[in-house]
Amino acid sequence: MSLINTEVKPFKATAYLNGEFVDITEADMQGQWSIFFFYPADFTFVCPTELGDLADNYAEFKKLGVEIYSVSTDTHFTHKAWHDSSDTIGKLQYPMIADPTLRISRNFEVLIEEAGLAERGTFVVDPDGKIQIVEINAGNIGRNAEELLRKVKAAQYVRANPNEVCPAKWKEGEETLAPSLDLVGKI
Q1: Where is the Thioredoxin domain (predicted)?
Q2: Options 47, 55, 131, 149, the catalytic residue
Q3: 127 touches 33 (CB < 8 A)
């Protein structure tokens, strides 16, 4: 079953954020755009490159009113240790959610049960708490924050302009389409 347009299920977790442990629930994302960025594990290889890429683009996401939540099945203590020991992870300013109970990973259907790890899953959630974008990558394929930014802008655009759609490779400021009988068979 697709998670598109479903509401994020309730959860409560501890995250590491800016030198502190903080509690986070699904209620924290209400009224804003959110990205849940699942990754397999701290202290690995592809994961820090992805989290660093998000950190390098974090200001752009914030300008769009988007909060990023990175999530792995590690503990919040492990998140802190990784943050303190890695220059790449040390620049993160968004919450690093700990999911040692595996509940959040199960809720988003990214848990690899036999390994106790999360798939490389990306979920864009609208201000109503509904999932608008789902992307799952194999463990050895890293994601691109600039492409994610483009997708977020498209999701925000169609939310604000419900009679329009964004075609392939659409970028902010480019033409959109207004679906109608006149367009059928002409694209």
Answers
A1: 2-157
A2: 47
A3: yes
